[in-house]
Design goal:
Blueprint: E1 2-6, E2 9-12, E3 17-24, E4 27-38, E5 45-50, E6 56-58, E7 66-71, E8 76-81, E9 90-102, E10 105-112, E11 116-121
Parallel strand pairs: 2-11
Antiparallel strand pairs: 1-3, 3-8, 4-5, 4-9, 5-6, 7-8, 9-10, 9-11
């Protein structure tokens, strides 16, 4: 499974960005899709995740400002980020748990995108 993320960039505090991540490959089923972030010197943390049925889990630090959504037909997850703060500055990684068809059968695994950088200036 390949995950292609886009939408990062430089924005002033209070601004907005929308991240997108499209999954491709020999996918049978995508379960959870989500976004994680890692700031310099910090551990990677969950920002938000969404199940195939649309249930979401959003970190308290971004609740009310960030919205996660997905388009199952396009195997794509989005992260709408509003009211951005300097502390949101990080590399944002797309993640998915997906089932793929392999020669040995169906394999369920976690996959990561390459990361997209978000910088919020004060």
């Amino acid at each position: 499974v390949q995950l292609q993320a886009s939408g990062g960039g430089l924005v002033q505090a209070g601004g907005s960005l929308r991240l997108s991540c499209a999954a491709s490959g020999n996918i049978l089923r995508i379960n959870t899709m989500g976004w994680y972030r890692q700031a310099p010197g910090m551990e990677r943390e969950l920002v938000a995740a969404i199940t195939s049925g649309g249930s979401t889990n959003v970190a308290d630090s971004v609740k009310g400002r960030f919205t996660i959504s997905r388009d199952n037909a396009k195997n794509t997850v989005y992260l709408q980020m509003n009211s951005l703060k300097p502390e949101d500055t990080a590399v944002y990684y797309c993640n998915t748990n997906a089932a793929t068809a392999q020669s040995v059968g169906t394999i369920i695994n976690d996959y990561w995108g390459q990361g997209t950088e978000v910088t919020v200036s004060s």
